[in-house]
Amino acid sequence: MRTKPQSPLINTPSLAGLALAVALLFDAALSIQGLVPEQASLFPALAHFLDTQIAERLHTGTALIAFTSGIMLAISLILIPMQRVYRAREAQLLRERERLEAYNAELAQQAASDGLLGIANRREFERVLKLEWRRAARERQPLGLLMIDIDCFKRFNDSYGHQHGDACLRAVADVLKTAAARPGDLVARYGGEEMVVLMPHTSLEGANRMAERIHTMLAERALSFPDSPVAANVTVSIGVSSLLPVRDAKRATLVKLADEGLYLAKEAGRNRTASVPHLRLLHSADDSETWASREHRA
Ligand SMILES: Nc1nc2c(ncn2[C@@H]2O[C@H](COP(=O)(O)OP(=O)(O)OP(=O)(O)O)[C@@H](O)[C@H]2O)c(=O)[nH]1
């Protein structure tokens, strides 16, 4: 004789047993839906329930589950408060996150700097120039730029070898970093033995003063270069420019002017600073921008 199938029965003799029964049912529901615990939004809720109900103590218990097929399943269980497990996992994830963040910062630093000289690379310079140009436009402040080139560096390399050449480049980069000490200043390698110093809030006069400081500091370093046709020590030529970024002014012009200034300094005999006469943008007291006078400085 066929008996009427029993409905599923869950015998819960203890709190732990009840928790287990709930967990098993929940787990079964997840399996049916093909979910994994990480994807199941209810799972943390269940964990929280177990945590708060079971608190910080260990619990043991038995769950007896009777299925309609007649199979009885008895399971003994030790419940470990999930909070402890979660806290340990949380701390581990936090450490992992900090490690990854530090690694990312290191990678970003490497991507932005020149491996040989330890200063910003050309790409970083272009990035910062764009930002500073916009900031200078907003704040209506001039942006200054120095383009620096070591004099007769080919001869230096030929005379003393590339390793000494590299050391010389590093020494010059050091001088630039020491000279350009303001937090907003950026020293970068522009290419080969050419370096740049970008100086927010710096007029042509201020940029010229900075260039003179660099010449003085380099002379004090006295990096020996007896074969130089210019002086007994390593010297540099510097092109200077400064622009107020308003109206049609372009940041490429700032670089072009400094580059042209550098050419003039080389032409004039090296170991000096020069800037080309260029149109300078000024704005009047009523705040409207106007093209203003030509400046002639060399
Ligand atoms: N050691 C070393 N040399 C470099 C590096 N990058 C560029 N150079 C060298 O720098 C030299 C640049 O020489 P030139 O551009 O001819 O100019 P210069 O001899 O400095 O002469 P002027 O600029 O006219 O005073 C070349 O010999 C390049 O090989 C580098 O990373 N390390």
From TrEMBL:
Coiled coil: 86-113
Gene3D superfamilies registered for this protein in UniProt: 3.30.70.270
Keywords tagged on the record: Coiled coil, Membrane, Transmembrane, Transmembrane helix
Reaction(s) the record says it catalyses: 2 GTP = 3',3'-c-di-GMP + 2 diphosphate
Spans through the membrane: 58-80
Classification via InterPro entries: Diguanylate_Cyclase, GGDEF_dom, Nucleotide_cyclase, Rev_trsase/Diguanyl_cyclase
GGDEF domain residues: 141-278
EC number: 2.7.7.65
PANTHER family: DIGUANYLATE CYCLASE DGCM-RELATED, REGULATORY COMPONENTS OF SENSORY TRANSDUCTION SYSTEM
Name of the molecule in the record: diguanylate cyclase
